[in-house]
Each structure stands twice: as structure tokens, then as C-alpha cells.
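Objective 1b of the project was to move from sequence-level analysis to a structural picture of ligand recognition. The entry below was assembled by the postdoctoral researcher (A.K.) and checked by the PI before modelling. It contains the amino acid sequence of the target and the SMILES of the bound compound, S-adenosylmethionine.
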Amino acid sequence: MVFEDEQQSGSDGDWLVRGSGDPEEVAAYYDRWATGYDDDLDSWSYRAPSVVAGFAMEHSAPQRILDAGCGTGLVGVALRAAGFEGELHGADVSEESLRLAGETNAYTMLTTANLQEPLDFDDDAFGALTCVGVMTYVPAVEDAWREFCRVVEPGGVVVVTQREDFWEPRECPMVIDRLVADGTWEPILVSDAEPYLPGNDDYTDEIGVHYVVARVR
Ligand SMILES: C[S@@+](CC[C@H](N)C(=O)[O-])C[C@H]1O[C@@H](n2cnc3c(N)ncnc32)[C@H](O)[C@@H]1O
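Corresponding predicted holo structure:
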């Protein structure tokens, strides 16, 4: 991927909107953007981390949470602000983002992981799992959501976001229904598309975000 000089530490709107399913390309992009990420997302009025943290705390009382695709740690910080005091594991493919997540002191453990592969965690290892802003980069939605459910104990919750423009093309409603049909999870909330990055001209009202909160069975 080629970056313009002036974009070395910033984001590339076209790339962000398009997304990528190539973990190496994604890692390189987020490694490069990591130092500017929090300020950029703040300037775009990114609320998803605090919304998801609120859902996780409202619908579960976990001792251990996995933040899948933790990035620079915005969700971890939001979980701590929402009162979570247990073990918090973060996993991401971007080493530089993980380094910055470590500086938040929100996480108990941080691991390099590719969410397009099976997770290196035992069955039922967590009481909740959060995955915020990540599914853009994970085309095989059903594989990932089934893996999320595997590592969360029965009764725990999975809280994920999915961009509006990937919702139907990646058949998310059908995936949700299949996981219900075979007894993998029970949805608590499947939201309509809500504002995602209202301060970013590339997204504005065009690209919202769906929140999915589901209880693992
Ligand atoms: C938009 S950021 C979201 C970060 C954080 N969850 C937040 O809400 O600020 C997307 C994150 O997903 C991570 N990511 C994308 N594809 C991944 C994959 N296959 N495995 C692990 N992490 C991935 C990126 O490295 C990046 O940190």
C-alpha cells in the first residue's frame, strides 16, 4: 500500500471506507495510523466504544473480558470507565496499536492475534467479548462470530459492531438467525443503523453502525 507523505501518521479516507480483508495490509495501516488514531476518532465523534462498554456491563457481570480487535485501547478505557474491574484481555493484529493500548493501563494482557483464524483461548474462557469497529476487516462473519461464542461461557455476552454498508452484503441478519437456530446464541439487541463517525465527511450519514448484543447459550 502506498501512502502520500502527508498521510504518514494519519488516515486515508478512501482506504478506511473501502476496508480490507488482508490482515497484513490492515496491520501495516493501523501500525502507521496508531499514534494519530485516538485524536482522529475523537474529532469524528466516535461513540461506539462507550456504547459497547455500556451494553457489556448492562447485560453481564463478567470476571474476564476479551476485547477482540482492541486497537489503541479505546474500548478498554471505556470498560474501565463503565466500572469493569476484572481481567481484560486485548487482542489485535497491529503491534503498534497494542503498544499504545498497553499505555492506557486498562488491559491485563495484550496479545497479537489474527481474528480471521481460530483464537488461542480455551472454550468458555471469558464472561464477555467486545469487538468494536473490527468486522470491516473480517469478511467471514459467521466464522468469527462462532469463534467469539466458543471463547465466551454460556450466559456471557458477545457485543459486536458491524458497519451498515457491510450488514446485508455480508449476510449478517442470516448469520444471526443461523446462530439462533443451532442454539449458539440468543440476541438481546440487534440495533438499526446508528451514527458511526458523524464528524468524518467520508462517512457522515451514509455509513452507520449496527450494534449486536447476544447471550451465549
Ligand atoms: C477501527 S479499529 C477499532 C479499534 C478499537 N476496537 C476501537 O474501537 O477503537 C480496527 C482494529 O481492528 C484491528 N483488526 C483488523 N483486522 C484484524 C484481524 N484480522 N485480526 C485482529 N485485529 C484486526 C485493526 O488492527 C484495528 O486495530
